[in-house]
Each structure stands twice: as C-alpha cells, then as structure tokens.
Amino acid sequence: MTQTSSSNYRQASCALAFLLILVLGAALRITAARTTVVDTPIRADAKGYVAYAYNWNNYGVFSRQTTWIPSEAPTRVVPDALQQPGYPAFLRLFLRGLPDDSFVHSVMFGQACLGIATVVLSFVLARMVLGSMAALLVMLLVALSPHLIVMENYLLCETLYTFLLVIFMVAGTATIRQNENSKKLMLSGVTGLILGLACLVRPPLMQFAPLVFILTLVISNLRIYRTQALCGLLGFVLILAPWIIRNLIEFGQIGDPSLLVNTLIHGSYPNMQYNGDPNTLGYAYRFDPHIAEISKNVSVALAAIGRKFLQDPIAYANWYLIGKIAYFFKWQIVGGYTDVFTYPVLHSPYFGNVAFLVTHALMLGLHWPLVIASLFGAITAWTRQANMVVSGWRLKTIRWFSMILGIVLLGNMIGAPYSRYSIPFRPLLYILATFALLLVVNWVQILRREGLRA
Predict the structure, then answer these.
(1) Displacement of CA 162 from its chain's centroid (Å)
(2) Which of 437, 431, 433, 438 is nearest to 123 (CA)?
(3) Distance between CA atoms of residues 115 and 30, nearest Å
(4) What is the C-alpha to C-alpha distance for residues 428 and 406, in angstroms, rounded to an integer?
(5) 389 in Cβ contact with 438 (< 8 Å)
(6) d(Cα 427, Cα 145) in Å, to the nearest integer?
(7) Of 110, 191, 202, 207, which Cα lies nearest the Cα of 162?
(8) Degrees (nearest 5) of the Cα angle 126, 334, 81?
(9) Pick from 370, 364, 373: nearest CA to 439
(10) Residue 250 in contact with residue 242, Cβ under 8 Å?
(11) What angle do CA 156, 157, 159 make, to 5 degrees?
C-alpha cells in the first residue's frame, strides 16, 4: 500500500468513526429527550430560571418571583440579581405564554441539539491540539457521558454552559495557533466575548480574563502577550457591561453579595454534611441552627469558617485541600435525586434501555481513572516530558487548558463543591485525560526502545 493510499484509508476510517460516534451521541440524546419524564420539572433552581424568563417576557423585569401561578403571585414584581441572565435569555427562545409541558419538551429537545453540537465541537477542539485519533476518543467520551445527556433533560443551565465553554476553548485555541498579529488580536477579542457569554450563564470563570491580563503584566516572559490579553479582557468586559451597569443602577452594587456568602458557608461543612449526618448531604446549611448568624456578610462568614479551622485544623485542611476536589468530581450528584440525576425522574432510558445501561456502566467504570488522568495531564503539561506529545502552540494550548481547570478547582476549593457544577467541564477533563494517556504511551515506548538497545 502506497503512502497516499494509506493516508486516504486513515482519513476515510476517521470520517467513518466520526459519523458513527455522532450518530450514537445524537441517538442517545434524542431518545433521552423524547422518553425522559421529570417529576415536576419546574422546581428549585429550574423554577427560578423559568421565573426569570417569564417575568422578563411579560413584565420586562428580571425577577425570580413566581408570577404565573395565582396562589404564588406577588403584588409587585421586584427585580433581583440572584442568578445570571444568560440561561433565562435562552429559555425565552422557547417560552410562548405559560411555562407548560410543551415549553418543557421544547427546551429538552433544544438542549439535546446543543448537546449534539457539543459532541462535534469537542472533536474539533481535541483534533486541533491532539490529532484525529485522540479527538475521536474525546468525542466518544463526550457522546457517551450520562451526566451530559441527563442534564439536557432539566431546565438547568449546565448544557448551555458546556456548549459555550467548548466554543470558548475552540476560539482560544484558534487564537494561540494564529501567527498573524492582527488576526490574533481579533480572535483574542472574540474569545473574550465568548467567555463573557459563558459567565452570563454561570460565573466560575469570571476571574479568568482579568487574571490572565494581570499575569501578562506581572510575569516578564508573558509580557509579549499583554496586548492579546487586553483584547480578550475588553471583549469580556463588553459583554458583561450591560449586566453590571443594570445592577449598579438597580441595586448600587455589581451583584448580589449573598451569593458569595452562601457559596463560602455552603462549602464549609466537611463532606457537605452537618455534623457528619448523611441525611444532610448537600444541604448541611439547612440543618445548622446558626446559619442566619454566620451568613450576615462576607467578613462574618470568613470569621465563622476561621473558627471551624481553629477547632479542628487537620479535618478542615483535609476537607478544603483534598475532600472538596473529590466531591466536585463525584459521580453521584451531591444533593441530587440519585446517581446522575439532579431532580427526580418518573421515567428515563437509563432505567431499562440496554444501550443506555451499557454506556452508563462503561462511563461509571472509567469515571475516576479519567478524573485522575486529567489531573495528571494538567500537572504534567508543565513538565519537559509534555513535549513528547505536543509542542509549540499546541503545548501552550494544553497549558492554557490546565490553567482553566486550575481556576475552576481553586474556586470550588474556596466555595461549595457541588458535583453538578463539574459537569460542564467534562470535555476539558477528557481532553486532558487523553493527553495524559498519550504521554504515558510515549513514555512506555521510550522505555521499551531503551530496553531493546540495552
């Protein structure tokens, strides 16, 4: 077989594998959207998101109050800033009148389409950095992930956030790869814009653009990137500016300070339990008789956490440095219904469909190996050995990915490590885990060659 025909064969095989994985991922998502029945889908956080969308549509007010149910309707619709406006804006695309069953089903199918797009974009992203074969593995993992599939059936922001995160990483990778300065600056601005959109859905990476810009000013080796970082920061601020200005005009502050207080306090209970009681898992703060007292403001919350550290420094150091990371990546949704489900479901293909049961079992078995491999990959990306797998702009990109993961982990080590919040970062984890796998394979090959020479 000639080199050309061999190359054509590999390309055809890759294209076929891509199509098969895409069909599988799409089939799983469409089947889940068509057959899943959520018990009271508009509840808790989902109810808040729907309320924002409904009040925005009908009253022009961004408010979490329930106004479409007569028994719960307030006398006046009061604006707030308890949640970001990105996901309610997405829900408005599907809301025509009351939030009824047809609205719920249309959102589920819309999110299934976003999930399918995320599968494709994950391949595009991984192929840019690791090559086609590695990208197929990443694509397969994203396609099969039960967490990503199930989350598409809830009126929660994780599916939209995952989609925007992957687009953000694609744009960032294209920026790093670009050599022409003017195009690089333009792509930096676009990357900042997309990050801003993602942060309007969920805020875990809110500090990322400012932090990167500060690093380019402080670290001498990074100063050549300061103009690009500034363009990214400007794009980021441009998207967030209307939301920030609205809050300053409405409330005299950038956002609701109770959000920071709550995340600090909610994450301060070891194993997310009150006094070690498993019945309080995920909602320890509800059982704390002092919750009102310690949640007055940020300084009071920090003082309360400090007292906990002084009472048992070893236990709390272990919780903040190790335990929170383990809980963040936990397979079961902490405080959720069961397994990968956040809210109770009356029917799901994961309860009896063979294809869903098999893929669930596969991903469950791979879960912790993939998590550990991704952390290993994020660390080894900064070593000399990383050059065995990637180099040049690809190595810079992998290190950029590890920075993103590091910021996310740091935020959850400070705040509340609910495992649901880790779901949007699955594509990133799978890329870093695949990088780690390639690195180990290269190490083994080098050791074998050295052994044969000896």
Answers:
(1) 5
(2) 431
(3) 10
(4) 12
(5) yes
(6) 10
(7) 202
(8) 80
(9) 373
(10) no
(11) 100
Q: Could you tell me if 415 and 267 are in contact, meaning their C-beta atoms sit under 8 angstroms apart? A: yes
CB 63 within 8 A of CB 88: no
Cα–Cα distance, 194 to 184 (Å, whole number): 15
Torsion of CA 357, 362, 366, 367, to 10 degrees: -10
pLDDT in tens, 208-255: 999 999 999 999 888 999 999 999 999 999 999 999 999 999 999 988
pLDDT computed for residue 2 by the predictor = 65
Q: Map residue 351 onto helix, strand or coil.
A: helix
CA quadruple 417, 418, 423, 426: dihedral, nearest 10: 30
Can you tell me which residue has the tokens 């809110």?
206
Position 199 scores a pLDDT of 97
Nearest Cα to 168, choosing from 408, 412, 401, 391? 401
Considering the entire predicted model, what is its pTM?
Answer: 0.95
**Given 3-state DSSP classes, what are the helix, strand and coil percentages for the chain, each rounded to the nearest 5?**
75, 0, 25
Count of beta carbons in the 10 Å neighbourhood of residue 297: 13
The secondary structure of residue 345, as a DSSP letter, is: E
Q: How far apart are CA 320 and CA 228, in angstroms?
A: 34
| Three-state DSSP state, 335 | coil
Long-range contacts at 32-35 (CB < 8 A, ≥ 24 apart): 32/112, 32/149, 32/150, 32/152, 32/153, 32/348, 32/349, 32/350, 32/356, 33/105, 33/108, 33/109, 33/111, 33/112, 33/152, 33/153, 35/347, 35/348, 35/349
- 271 within 8 A of 323, measured Cβ to Cβ: yes
Q: Are 348 and 32 in contact (CB under 8 A)?
A: yes
Question: What residue type is 353 in one-letter code?
Answer: N
Helix (H, G, I), strand (E, B) or coil at 83: coil
Give the number of C-alpha atoms closer than 13 A to the C-alpha of residue 74, restricted to the C-beta side.
11
Phi, psi of 243, deg, nearest 5:
-65, -45
CA distance 378 to 431: 10
- Residue 344's CB is within 10 A of a number of other CB atoms, namely 13
Q: Which residues of the chain have pLDDT under 50?
A: none
Encoded amino acid at 414, one letter: I
Fill in the DSSP letter of residue 173.
H
Give 135's contacts (C-beta < 8 A, 6+ positions apart): 122, 123, 124, 125, 126, 127
CA distance 219 to 199: 26
Q: Among the residues of 219-268, which ranges form H helices?
A: 226-251, 258-266
Q: To which residue do tokens 């590890």 refer?
A: 402
Task: Give dist(CA 71, CA 19) in Å, integer.
Answer: 50
